[in-house]
Amino acid sequence: MSASNDDRLWIFDLDDTLHNASAHIFPHINRAMTEYVMTHLGLSQQQANELRSHYWIKYGATLHGLMRHHGTDPQHFLHHTHQFSDLSSMVQPDRGLRSMLARLHGRKVVFTNAPREYALRVLLILGIRQYFERVFSIESTRFQPKPARAGFMRLLSKINVPAARCIMVEDSLPALKTAKRLGMKTVYINSGARRPSFVDLRLNSVLALPNITVPF
User: Fold this and answer.
1) Residue 2: is its pLDDT beyond 50?
2) Which domains are seen in the chain, by residue range?
3) What is the pLDDT of residues 150-163, one digit of tens each?
4) What 8-state DSSP symbol labels residue 63?
5) 3-class DSSP state of 1
6) What is the model's pLDDT at position 7?
7) In which element (H, E) is residue 198 found?
8) Distance, CA of 116 to CA of 112 (rounded, Å)
9) How many CB atoms lie within 10 A of CB 153?
10) SS3 of 114, please?
11) Can you give the C-alpha Rg of the chain in angstroms?
């Protein structure tokens, strides 16, 4: 990419974009969320999983549905579903991640549906916190998670950068669709999947970003 466009803003998702969360972290969080729903709503495991799936499809996050329909306290939910005895052993960093971020021209922020404390811990474990000027977490969106437009609009208002100057780097297609509708460029991190029309670029790995020659 052209180094002359240093006023661009890279918006990075965290989990399964900057690191592999599916191997160890997501299974742990999913179990904790299911147990939380079972305990606080008095549901069986099957019912809890079905409800979580319904809220995920409808709202993009279990928490959004729980807040809207059950009055769940978001801070209480996030605290109890993001407890890790040894997070450092669960985070799987990619070799070359720090080098990639150092070489990538432009400002950078993290935009994640995860709670802030967890996001900061992961970035520190990865050794890349210093490359991001802002970490925009679920608390920052006032608990309006991606792909909700409201969360994106709060981010844009905070960073004071036009959407047309932003590049969204994500593994979630619904989030990328919202980003594209707002006028952002979109990069889909996924190995082997098709590239929908609202995706400008698909990469197998985030590590390939500095080598891309397509102008943004």
Assistant:
1) no
2) 9-20+93-211 (3.40.50.1000), 25-81 (1.10.150.450)
3) 999 999 999 999 99
4) H
5) coil
6) 79
7) none
8) 9
9) 15
10) coil
11) 17
